[in-house]
Specification:
There is one protein chain. The chain is α+β, with helices and mostly antiparallel strands. The chain has two domains: 98 residues; 62 residues, no CATH class. It has three helices and six strands, in the order H-H-E-E-H-E-E-E-E. A four-stranded antiparallel beta sheet has the order 1-4-5-6, covered by helices on one side. A two-stranded antiparallel ribbon has the order 2-3. Strand 5 and strand 6 form a beta hairpin. Bound molecules: zinc ion (2 copies). The site of one zinc ion (ZN) has 8 residues, from loops. One zinc ion binds next to loops.
Length: 192
């Protein structure tokens, strides 16, 4: 019994090492690693934005303060993310809130804001883009403001969204189209 207690963990380690080695170069593993890279870069972009109030123009600006270097796509064997990096304006995403009650779940604000969701989405679908202002809804003053302060809800659209992708056709064998996986801050990681 005494020897067993030594042998088993050792054997398990060997088997584990073998399994990792054998699976290391599958295409799916490469996608997972590439997705992981995108998440790391995405986190750095968020931190950069918090510090600077805007996203960098080039990913290289993250180095070395936010990342020691840009990670490499395991399939490409090089860094594939900076080439196609862009910040696009998303005119579909909308945000409504009360300045006085930033967490309005416990207040009467939440009902009013919830009532705005339907008309906002309807107008957006009609126009093909989010309204520029709550005034476009043509509702009563009361309907678009805080019931406590009367102040109009703040409304935002046109968010700048950084988009990072593995540029190229490196993951087609894993079923991903060219320039995937891809990451943006509104939708997260999309593999295909
Ligand atoms: Zn990749
Ligand atoms: Zn309020």
């Amino acid at each position: 019994m005494k020897t067993h207690s030594f042998i088993y963990p050792f054997l398990a380690l060997l088997l584990l090492g073998y399994a990792r080695q054998a699976g290391l170069h599958t295409h799916e593993k490469d996608v997972a690693q590439c997705v992981n890279n995108l998440e790391i870069i995405g986190d750095s972009l968020k931190t950069y934005e918090r510090d600077h109030g805007a996203y960098p123009k080039r990913l290289q600006q993250l180095v070395p303060e936010y990342l020691s270097e840009l990670p490499s796509c395991p399939q490409a064997g090089r860094e594939t993310y900076s080439e196609g990096f862009e910040t696009r304006v998303d005119d579909w995403f909308m945000q409504v809130g009360c300045t006085t009650h930033p967490y309005p779940s416990q207040t009467a604000c939440s009902d009013r804001i919830a009532d705005l969701v339907k008309p906002l989405k309807r107008l957006r679908n009609e126009q093909g883009r989010a309204p520029h202002s709550l005034l476009e809804l043509n509702l009563d003053r009361d309907a678009i403001g805080c019931p406590e302060t009367g102040e109009r809800f703040h409304y935002r659209t046109g968010f700048r969204v950084p988009v990072i992708a593995c540029e190229g056709s490196y993951h087609v064998k894993a079923g991903s189209p060219a320039d995937f996986p891809r990451f943006d801050l509104l939708h997260g990681v999309v593999e295909k």
